[in-house]
Amino acid sequence: MSATATTSITNSLTTGRLPRWAPWALLGGSWVVVSVIFAMISAAMDAEFNIALAIFVGTIVFDVLIYVIAYLVEGRRQATNRLVTSLVATAFIIALLPLVSLIFTVIVSGLPRFDIQFFSSSMRNVVGEGGGALHAIVGTLLITGMAALISIPVGLLTSIYLVEYGRGPLARAITFFVDVMTGIPSIVAGLFAYALFSLLFSDPGIRFGFGGSVALSLLMIPVVVRSSEEMLRIVPNELREASYALGVPKWLTILKVVIPTSIAGIATGVTLSIARVIGETAPLLIIAGFTTNMNYDLFADRMMTLPVFVYTQYANPGTDVQVYLDRAWAGALTLILIVMALNLIARLIARIFSPKLGR
Known about the structure:
The protein is mostly helical. The chain has two domains: 22-111, no CATH class; 134-353, MetI-like (MetI-like fold, Orthogonal Bundle), CATH 1.10.3720.10. Helices cover 72% and strands 0% of the residues. It is built from 13 helices and no strands. It has helices at 22-45, 51-73, 76-110, 116-120, 134-165, 169-182, 186-201, 209-233, 237-245, 250-277, 282-287, 306-315, 321-353. Helix 6 crosses helix 8, helix 7 (186-201) crosses helix 8 and helix 8 (209-233) crosses helix 10 (250-277). The longest helix has 35 residues, at 76-110. The N and C termini lie far apart (71 Å). Belongs to the binding-protein-dependent transport system permease family. CysTW subfamily. It comes from Antiquaquibacter oligotrophicus. Keywords: Cell membrane, Membrane, Phosphate transport, Transmembrane, Transmembrane helix, Transport. It is found in: Cell membrane.
């Protein structure tokens, strides 16, 4: 009587599978373990902790671990697939390392002066410790707000003309000059505003907030034009033709059909253009100047802004250097938070006003 031996055949396509949370757990665990090791080494050597290097090394460790574990559990084919996927993720993480390092450094260095006094007082009569950036925050909001009031109508109307009416040499010329303005260095915009108002008022030493708004508007307008133009172009022509078929004039079609359809993209582009210019230093340093006093009038006297505040605190420290550096880092952290808030507002606007396609 012969016994039949039963052999089990293992199919590489139906082997064991790692849980869906396993890659994320391995990545997070690798970062934590490597960060702890780097922190211990930094403490032992009395050196500064480098978060970018810790994340990079932890990601490399994750690439090795995910391949080895997947090879043991899922087989060679799935291990290779997971390795390639992890390498793509590694490239993305490496691209984010400068941003992670920047945000980490600003948070760590800016928290010592991120207090109530920093947001409730100015630098008037302050030489050493104390003081705040209230005058700079107010100046930034006023100047940037006025720049938005100038740039949004001009940029939006220009984009409407280019999309709905523009034909021939004039439209091509406008497009060309908008492209040229996109690449203008910010300091050139500041010099233009300074030269313009110096000639108008015959005052070679003129400094005031409205001049800074004009300089920032030169940088905002091409961004608003380009973003709004792209949003208007993606509105289906069928919507326009349906409106024309009902006897609606063109201007009312633009106002009631085209703009409401693209309002989410337009609002996002406008918000991002504000975030792009709110951190400019060179043009404001030239035309708006700097001061330690509160100034609520855009049309009189110098006006401080957050970028200029950070620059002056860092470039002109007093006898106690660390106090000035702490204020500079706190100002930089405030500016980053404002930009992040503007980007979040842009996302919310895009989600709220975007056309609802589902039924």
